[in-house]
Amino acid sequence: MSEKERNEEAAELPEKQGRERLAAPVKRTGMFGGSTGGDTSGFGGLQVRGSAPANSPRPYTDPDDPRTADFDRVADDLEAALGEDAGAVERVEVALGELTFHVRREALLELARVLRDDPALRYELCTGVTGVHFPDDTGRELRAVYHFRSISHNSEIRVVTTCPDADPHVPSIVSVYPTNDWHEREAWDFFGIVFDGHPALTRIQMPDDWRGHPQRKDYPLGGIPVEYRGATVPPPDERRSYT
Amino acid sequence: MTVTEDYIDASGGDWDDVIEKAQATSAERLVVNMGPQHPSTHGVLRLILTLDGETCTEARVAIGYLHTGIEKNMEYRTWTQGTTFVTRMDYLTPLFNETAYCLAVEKLLGITERVPERASVIRVMMMELNRMASHFVAMATFGMELGATTVMTNGFREREMILDIFELVTGLRMNHAYVRPGGVAQDLPPGAVGQVRELLKEMPKRIQIMRKLLDENPVYLARTKDVAYLNLPGCMALGVTGPLLRASGLAFDLRKSKPYCGYEGYEFDVPVSDGGDVYARYRVRIAEMEESLKIIEQCLDKLGPGPVMIQDAKIGWPAKLALGPDGLGNSPDHIAHIMSSSMEALIHHFKLVTEGFRVPAGQAYAAVESAKGELGCYAVSDGGTRPHRVHFRDPSFTHLQAVAAMCEGGTVADVIAAVASIDPVMGGVDR
Amino acid sequence: MGLEEKLPSGIALTTVEQVVGLARKSSMWPATFGLACCAIEMMAVGGPHYDLARFGMEKFGATPRQADLMVVAGRVSQKMAPVLRQIYDQMPEPKWVIAMGVCASSGGMFNNYAIVQGVDHIVPVDIYLPGCPPRPEMFLDAVLKLHDKVQNTKLGAHRELEITEIEERMLRRSLPVVTRD
Fold first, then answer.
1. What digits encode the pLDDT tens for the residues B156-165?
2. Do B156 and C47 make contact, defined as CB atoms within 8 angstroms?
3. What is the distance between the alpha carbons of residues B144 and B362, in angstroms, rounded to a whole number?
4. Residues of chain B predicted below pLDDT 70
5. What pLDDT is stored for residue B133 in this prediction?
6. Do residues B230 and B421 lie in contact, with contact meaning Cβ atoms separated by under 8 Å?
7. Is the pLDDT of residue A112 over 80?
8. Which of B71, B75, B384 sits opposite A48 (nearest CB)?
9. Which pLDDT belongs to residue B93?
10. Would you state the pLDDT for residue B296?
11. Ramachandran sector of residue A73 (left: φ over 0; alpha: ψ -120 to 50; beta: rest)
C-alpha cells in the first residue's frame, strides 16, 4: 500500500467508523447515572443487539483450525448413537473452536445417557449446568447450558437446551451424571429452572426462605433490605443519596 | 430439638435437654450440626452429621453462607473490571480465576493467538507460584484442623515467600486483578526475576522440611492412611478432578490434555497415586509443588523481551502503571501525554476505561487446571461492553458433593480429615 | 509532689480502671470468625511471620463462649447474618468486634443482593479496618488501636456517664440519611 492510499484511508477512517457505529443496533442506557436496577458503577453500559450464528453448515471441521479437528467425528457418532432420535438435536453451532448442540428439552436425558455410555462418545465428565436468562428471546427465555468432557477421546462439547419463562421445566440428568446434583440446584436457585426428576431440588446458595431467583435479568442487582429478628434495615440504594 | 423413635436431633438448643431426652429414649443416633462457624470446617461450611456412636452414618453438606453474587455483579461492570471480581472467588487461587476468565474473554474476542508470548509465560509462572501457595495453605489448614500446629505454622511461613513475590509483581498479596484480557496488567518489575530465582533455590529445602515432617510421620499416617477413600468410578460420577482425581489413579491434567497459555512447551510430569485416600492426596499435592518448581524454572528461561499486553489499542489497557512515591499508579508520562499533547489519546483513554471494549456476541468456555481441579469459566456476551453472563465451574463446589461418599461409614474424626483433604475454599464454592 | 514521692520503690499507683483495662487487653481471646479472603490474612497474622502471640492473642477460641473479640473477617452474606448475630450473642460480656476489610465494614465492592452492606447492621462494631484484604500489618494496627480502647474503657458509673455523653454527641451530629418519596 502506497503512502497516498494510506493517507486516503486514514482520511476516510472517521467517516467509516461513524457509519459503522450508526449501523450497529446499539442500545445505550445513558452515560453516568444509569438507571438500571441497583447499578452503582455510575455508567449505564452499552449493549449491541446481535444474533449469534444460528446454524452452522457441514463440515464442522475447519482444516485451518486444530481446535475443531474432531467435530465432524463427534457429530457423526452422536447422530449414529441417537439413531431415530437424531431429531432431538435442533441445530449445531460451531463457533470460536467450540461445538454446541442445541437440543430439545424432552430429549435431554436420553442424550445425556448416550453421551456417557456410547463407546464412540464416552463423555465421562459433566462439568455442570448453568442457566442463562435472555428476557428478549420470547419462548426460550431460559437456557440450561451443559459442558461435557471426554477424557478417553480428549474432547469437549456443549449442550444447550431452552425453556420458556412460563414453563421453566427441564429434565434432570442427575440419574446419569450424579455430579449435576448441586449444579442443578444452583441453576434452580438462581434462575428458577425446575429440573424434573431431581432427587431434592431445593435452594442451595440463597437462604431457604428467599423470594425470587436473583441472577435472572429481571431481578435487581442490589436493594434488598436486611432483616434480623423483625427489625429491618433499608436496602443500600435507599439509605443515602449519592448526588 | 426433636426426638423421634430412632434419632436425637442435637443441631441446636441446650445440651442438658439433649442429654435428658437421650436418656429417656433408646435411640442411639444423634444428628449433629457442625458449622457454618466451626474451626474445623474449612471456612463457612456447614455439615449435618448423623452419628451412631462415633460412626458417621449420614453426612449432608450445606453451603451458601458465603454467597457473594459475584457472577451477577459482573454483569454490571465492564469486561476488564471483571478480573477484579473473579480474583475474589476462590481467594487462594486468584491467578487461576483471572486466567480462566481472561482466556474465555480472549476466546470471545478471537485474540487468543495474539496474546504476547511474554504475557503467557508470566501467566504460567504466576499460576505455578499460586499453585504452590494454595497447596501450602491446603496442608497448613489440614494441620490446623487436625491439631498439628507445626504443619500450620510451617505452611504459612513458606507461603509468605511466595506472597512476597506476588506483592512485588502485582502490588498485592491477594486479590491481584493482575491478569487482564489481552495480557497482564504490567511487566515484571526489576528484581522480580532475581527473587523468583532465590525462591527456586530455597523452596526445595522447604518442601523437603514438609516431607520430613509428614511423609513418614506415624501420627499423620494414622490420621490419613485409608481415610476418606474415593475410587476412580466415584470420582468420575461425582465430577471430581484435580489432585483428588490424580490421587485415585488417573493422570488427567488439563495442562497436558488441553494445553493453554503455552503449557505444551513445558516439560513436567503429572504426579499420580492410586491410594485414593487422604494420604495419597497429600502425596500428589506435594509432588505437584516440586513439578511447579520445574515449570517456574523453565518460565524464567523462556522469558524473552517483548510486550505484555496485546498490541491492539482497542483492547489493551491505555495506561502503563508506574511506581511513584505514593505507591503504584498511572505513569506520569502517560498522564502528560493525554493531558497536554493529544486530545484523541485522552478521548480514547476515557472511552476505554469508562465504557470498555465491545466483545462480539457469543459464548465461550475456557478451563484451566487450578490447584484444586478443573476451573471452568463460561462467558456469554451480547455484543456489549459488559458480560451478559459469566459462570464459574468451581472445582471446590463440585468436590464438596463427594463428602458424603467419603465420610459415611467412617468415624466422625475422619470427617474433618476428609473435608480438609478436599481443600474446599468457600469463596469459590459459593461465589 | 504528692503521694508518689513518698512511696517505697516497687509500688506504683494507678486506677482500678487502668488495671482492669490492662488485664483485659493483655489476654484477648479472639473467636475464629473467618469468612472469606480476610480470614486467610487473619491466619497469616497468627502465623510465625507476623506473630499475633506478641500481643497475647494467639489463642483463637474455637467456641464463642470463651472469646471476647470477634474479628468479622470477610463478606457477610444474607444467609450468614443470623448465624453471625447468634455467635455474637453467645459471647460473654465484655466483647468487642473488629470489622476486618471493606466488605465487613461497608459491603465494599459487592453492593448487591447477597451481601449485607456492612456488618454494623447486625452487631456493634468497635474498629473498622479498611483494605481488600487489609495487610497483616494493618490488622496488627487495628488490634493495637483496639487494645488502646480497651485499656482506657471506664467502669461502672463512669462508663454509664461516658455512654450517655457519646450518645448525646452522636444525636447532635447531622446524619447523611435522606428519605425518598
1. 889 999 999 9
2. yes
3. 45
4. 1-15, 18, 22, 25-27, 39-41, 319, 326-328
5. 93
6. no
7. yes
8. B384
9. 92
10. 94
11. alpha
Residue type, B183: G
**What is the average pLDDT value for chain B, to the nearest integer?**
87
Calculate the average pLDDT of chain C: 85
**β-sheet bridge partners, residue B49:** B32, B59
CB contact under 8 A, B401 and A178: yes
Distance, in Å, from the CA atom of A138 to the CA atom of B247, rounded to the nearest integer, reads: 47
Q: Are A100 and A75 in contact (CB under 8 A)?
A: no
Burial of C3 (0-12, 13-18, 19+ CB in 10 A): exposed
Strands (E), chain A: 26-28, 46-48, 89-95, 98-103, 125-133, 142-150, 155-163, 169-171, 194-196, 226-228, 231-233
**C85, C89, C111, best to mutate vs chain A, most A CBs in 10 Å:** C111
Q: C-alpha angle with apex C44: C38 to C49, nearest 5 degrees? A: 150
Residues 135 through 154 of chain C touching chain B, CB cutoff 8 Å: 135
**Model confidence over A10-33: pLDDT tens digits?**
666 666 666 665 565 565 555 443
Cβ pair A50:B360 closer than 8 A: yes
CB-count exposure of residue B360 (10 Å: 0-12, 13-18, 19+): middle
Of C137, C136, C118, which is closest to residue C128 (Cα–Cα)? Answer: C118
Sign of the Cα pseudo-torsion (A60, A63, A67, A72, in order): positive
β-pairing, A231-233 vs A226-228, is: antiparallel
Taking CB atoms and an 8 Å cutoff, what residues of chain A touch C81? Answer: 226, 228
Residue from C69, C59, C76, C93 nearest C145 by CA:
C69
| pLDDT tier for residue A93 given thresholds of 50, 70 and 90 | confident
CB contact under 8 A, A221 and C112: yes
Chain B residues within an 8 Å CB radius of C87: 37
Q: Is B171 on the interface with C (CB under 8 A)?
A: no
Specify the higher pLDDT residue, B19 or C124: C124
3-state SS assignment for residue B326: coil
A219/chain C closest Cα distance in angstroms: 9
Inter-chain touch B156–C43, beta carbons under 8 Å: yes
Chains near B, with 3+ CB pairs < 8 A?
A, C
Counting residues of chain A whose pLDDT is more than 70, the rounded percentage is 69
Choose among A49, A61, A159: nearest CA to A110: A159
Q: C49, B73: Cβ pair inside 8 Å? A: no
Whether residue B305 has a cis bond before it, omega within 30° of 0: no
C122, C93 Cβ separation under 8 angstroms = no
Q: How many whole angstroms separate alpha carbon A49 and alpha carbon A44?
A: 16
Torsion of the alpha carbons at C65, C68, C74 and C80, rounded to the nearest 10 = 30
**Residues of each annotated binding site of C for [4Fe-4S] cluster:** 37-38, 103, 132
Give A242's pLDDT tier (boundaries 50, 70, 90): very low
Chain B residues close to A132, C-beta within 8 Å: 380, 388-389, 391
Place of cell 454527641: C169
Task: Give the position of cell 443482593.
Answer: C113
**pTM score, whole prediction:** 0.88
Is the Cβ–Cβ distance between B137 and B92 less than 8 Å? yes
3-state helix, strand, coil in chain A (%, to 5): 30, 25, 45
Three-class SS state of A52: coil
Using the Cβ of B64 and the Cβ atoms of chain C, whether some distance falls under 8 Å is answered with: yes
Q: Among B361, B367, B393, whose Cβ lies nearest the Cβ of A50?
A: B361
Cα–Cα distance list, B74 to B318, C72, C107, C111 (Å): 22, 25, 16, 11
